[in-house]
Amino acid sequence: MIGTIINVATIIVGSVAGSIFKKGLKESYQDILMQAMGLVVAALGINAIATYMPQSQYPMLFIVSLALGGVIGLEQRFKNVVTKISKGNLAEGLSTAILLFCLGTTSILGLIESALDGITSIVLASTFGIGIIWSAVVLFCWQGSLYLLANVLSNFITSELLTETPIVGGVLIFYAGLSILGIRNFKTINLIPALLIPVIFIALKSTIGF
Asked: Residue range 130-152: average pLDDT?
């Protein structure tokens, strides 16, 4: 739990620092930062896919997950909530931050993870503004829930789950990178429910035994 608090504090400090940095940054430099962030995010997504795809026992699962996640959709509801907080393109930056902080560093521990979260929050806040700080709340709820439920979920969190879920997350992170680069505006937020599909599938597999 101490690690979670450190990560959250790092994101908050990084978001504040990035938003201050943004005020004195020329628009041309903001564009460069946006491009750099897009490339970094896309690279993180590719890395996750390349790392976990060879280990997958269900290579079609991520396709089904993305399809079902897109049908469920969250984009409009997410944007409605974010609009009440801030105007502009914060929804894009916030969804990227949530994906990166909650999924992008699952294989990195301790101070390295905190440092990465801090740097990422500075860059995102310098691009999208102080609203990125809300991702710290999401991260706290996410990691806090996992911490509190660790004993209950210990038998449920299998190697299959830890392999299949990051593949879907990697695709979403890659999509977010392409959107930031302006290559195509993928509806990444709409696809976030796709992360639940591998969880449901593996839970049913374990319960029913198919």
From this structure: 74
